[in-house]
Amino acid sequence: MKYLKKLLKFIKIYLALSLLSTLMVSCAINDKKTVGTFAPKGNEFNDAVIQVYAARTWGAKKFVSVHTWISVKPEGADEYTSYEIIGWRLRRGGTALRQRNNRPDKDWWGHQPELLLDIRGDKAARLIPDVIKAVEDYPYKDNYHAWPGPNSNTFTAYIGRQVPELGLDLPSTAIGKDYREIKDVVGMSASGSGVQASLWGLLGITLGTEEGLELNILGLNFEFDLLDLAIELPGIGRIGASDVDEYDDSKKESSPSSTEDIAK
């Protein structure tokens, strides 16, 4: 009985901290204009590119969550193809999966994009077929729930798990990234660098070199990134050292640090 009381006390503290960070999020939403600043122009950049983006979602959800998507450009292509999940598409029939060929680093409902992952060159060319296959195999194209999932962040996390060489580390604000059905409670983390146990994205824990230690209660994530000396809070996201690297054109396949490890 005393252990149950301790657990309930922990959950209350956890939810109180989550609420506090959510109330602070208005100070954390970045209004700096980033549209069009991340993706090289297709007709000027011959190499292959894989990028993952996040932007605050619309309405009241923007205070706690982001929307994520993935964009690819094969070697020699003049344009990008972006893949994302949009829930309202289901109400119009068809699938929630959307494919578009406009600017990858566009805004989302007026909110500026944030770059989460940037891989270019030979490695990107090698991984793009795997990314496209993961998009095609995504099992929830016809199923969408903003909370706890499956949603747009469930989709991006699925791609990360299917293509672990991406090293994709999604932010704590990507609610839905931890969604896993009961038949798949334990498995690889989205970055491919660790393990995760999660029940429908409502209760879970993740441990990995990219994610650090993540705790998830009711879809709200706390992350302790000991390697980068940073933490992530619900609603706010990352606080502490950033792991964003500027792309270096001289770094090729042989260098694992060519911006494949990107901040949340």
UniProtKB/TrEMBL annotation:
Residues 1-27 form the signal peptide. Keywords: Signal. PROSITE patterns: PROKAR_LIPOPROTEIN. The keyword Protein biosynthesis does not apply. Residues 255-264 have a biased composition (Polar residues). Residues 242-264 are annotated as: Disordered. It holds the Pfam family DUF3750. This is DUF3750 domain-containing protein. The lineage of its organism: Bacteria, Pseudomonadati, Pseudomonadota, Gammaproteobacteria, Oceanospirillales.
